[in-house]
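Example 3.2
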Amino acid sequence: MPLTEIALRKAKASAKPARLFDGGGLYLEIAPSGGKWWRFKYRFAEKEKRLSLGVYPEVSLKAARAKRDDARRLLADGIDPSEHRQQSKSALTAKATNGFEAVARCRASIVVSMVAHRAINHATMLVAFLSVLDTVLASVDDLRPSVLHWLPAQRVMPFATYRLLRMELGPCGPAINVRIARINESQTVADTVGLADLGLPDLQTLATGRDPAALAFRLVHLARAMFVGDKLDCVWVEEGSFSPPRRDALTIQLD
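Structure, written as C-alpha cells:
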C-alpha cells in the first residue's frame, strides 16, 4: 500500500532500522536514533543498488516520489542513477569549463524567454518558465549533444546537468549559479547569480580556509532555502553585490 503523509508523521523509531515501502523501489528508512531517510532501491547491470533521496520531512513524500521517477527515467535510458549523480556533482560548483565555447560551436539554437505582464511571485514565475522550457526540450529529438545557456544565472550546462539539478534541487536548481574565486592562499570569495532576476537577493561571502567545492555546495543549498521561503541558518547583512552585475545581495558569515 502506498505511503501517506499521516503514516510518515506517525512512524516511530524502534530498536532496529525499519523500512516503510511506497512502491517503485522507493522506501523510507527509519534509524533507531529517529532519523528518516528516503532511499531508492534498483538493479543495474545485474547488481542491486540504493540511491539516497534526502531526509524526511525536509524532502516530502511528493518530492521523494518525483526524485524516484527521475531516477527511473535514467534507468530507462540505460543510465545508472548513482554513477550519473557522482559524475555530475561538479555541476554544483558551477564551473562550466569551456561552456561558452560550447555555445559558440552550436550550429543551431532555440531562444526561450518570458516576460511577466502582471505581478507574480518568484516561484510561480520560474515554474511557469520551466513548464515552457520543458515543452520545448521535449520537441528536440536528441538532447545528448545539447547545451543550455541560462542567461540570468550566467551559466552553461549540458542537458544531463540540467536534469540532475532539477532532480537534486527542484525548480531553482538550474536557475542559480555559484561563482568562486581565490583572493589569496587562505581567502575565497563566492557569490550566487540568478536569484536577483527572480526578485530575491543573491548571496555572497568572503570565507577563510574553506574548500571551494564545499563552499559552493553550501551556497547552493542556502539559495534553495531562500527560494522556498526558509530562514537562513547563518548571520547575514544586506548590502550591494561585491562583483558585477550590480544587484541586491546578502553578505553571509559562514566562518
